[in-house]
Structure to design on (323 residues):
């Protein structure tokens, strides 16, 4: 009888502890997610230290890796590519693959960066590219392309999608983006040897000097939103691996007048192209260009988030409107 009473008491206290343990686990995983963002931001800066530019968002999405052979830049086909003998991967701004590939040597993944087979890199899981609140670092289910793509939960800040006509400072009459292209308004911009095919934007990139609004006011990298019932099942924004060029897998963008692009927590709703969000309740995490980490509420004021997204529009930011 005494043992039965003791068992009931133990089970009662365990039931009280369960919510506490759950909350502690969530808090620990959220901290780990933030640490991932900080490590990535540091890697982006270390890359900048070496090349005087930030890694780029790459060129066209769903392309093979760019490499140099005999002094000439070439690129592999979208799938099945392999580095020819004597070839070396090129860096930004000529690399077709995006920032998450470009920084591999700066996050102790130099071996993966040098792998000769493109598809082997696509399937190489990089632990710090996964938010532990959302999922474990695992490759996706085998895709229609026949590969178990290694996903990513973070996106480089690709800026605005277009002019914001209702917001002074971001109207077409007020703000002129670099190269006349809104894909260059963030810090991780669209660029490669092949985009655009001709013109002054060839091989474009951005540096810290272009962050006119200040590094503490400009997002560098943030969490991307995902559809909960499609996680690890190759949804449209996670089906070409972390090496993907300018596309949903690796880039987040924003527009203050587009309700679909307002940040949100993961749900079963379809995710709009380039949308920010996370598995966390109430807010997602973003690393700013000074490597500071901030929580941004899903209800943040659109004009404040737009100002934090564009690096050189000159709009003031009240962080109380974000956090």
């Amino acid at each position: 009888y005494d043992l039965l009473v003791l068992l009931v008491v133990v089970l009662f206290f365990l039931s009280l502890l369960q919510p506490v343990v759950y909350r502690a686990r969530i808090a620990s995983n959220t901290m780990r997610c933030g640490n991932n963002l900080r490590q990535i931001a540091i890697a982006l800066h270390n890359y900048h230290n070496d090349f005087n530019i930030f890694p780029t968002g790459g060129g066209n999405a769903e392309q093979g890796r760019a490499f140099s052979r005999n002094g000439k830049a070439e690129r592999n086909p979208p799938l099945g590519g392999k580095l020819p003998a004597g070839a070396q991967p090129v860096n930004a701004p000529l690399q077709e693959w995006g920032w998450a590939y470009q920084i591999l040597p700066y996050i102790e993944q130099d071996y993966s960066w040098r792998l000769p087979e493109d598809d082997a890199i696509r399937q190489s899981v990089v632990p710090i590219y996964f938010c532990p609140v959302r999922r474990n670092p695992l490759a996706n289910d085998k895709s229609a392309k026949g590969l178990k793509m290694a996903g990513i939960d973070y996106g480089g800040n690709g800026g605005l999608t277009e002019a914001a006509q209702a917001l002074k400072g971001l109207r077409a009459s007020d703000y002129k983006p670099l190269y006349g292209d809104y894909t260059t308004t963030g810090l991780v911009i669209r660029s490669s040897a092949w985009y655009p095919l001709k013109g002054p934007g060839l091989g474009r990139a951005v540096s810290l000097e272009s962050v006119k609004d200040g590094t503490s006011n400009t997002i560098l990298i943030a969490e991307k939103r995902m559809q909960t019932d499609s996680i690890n099942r190759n949804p449209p924004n996670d089906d070409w691996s972390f090496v993907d060029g300018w596309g949903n897998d690796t880039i987040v963008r924003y527009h203050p007048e587009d309700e679909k692009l307002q940040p949100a927590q993961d749900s079963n709703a379809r995710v709009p192209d380039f949308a920010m969000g996370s598995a966390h309740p109430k807010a997602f995490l973003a690393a700013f260009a000074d490597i500071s980490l901030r929580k941004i509420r899903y209800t943040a004021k659109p004009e404040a988030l737009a100002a934090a997204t564009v690096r050189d529009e000159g709009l003031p930011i009240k962080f109380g409107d974000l956090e």
Summary: The chain has a mean pLDDT of 90. DSSP finds five helices and ten strands in the chain. Helices lie at 2-51, 99-102, 110-114, 118-122, 302-309. The first strand starts at residue 66 and ends at 69.
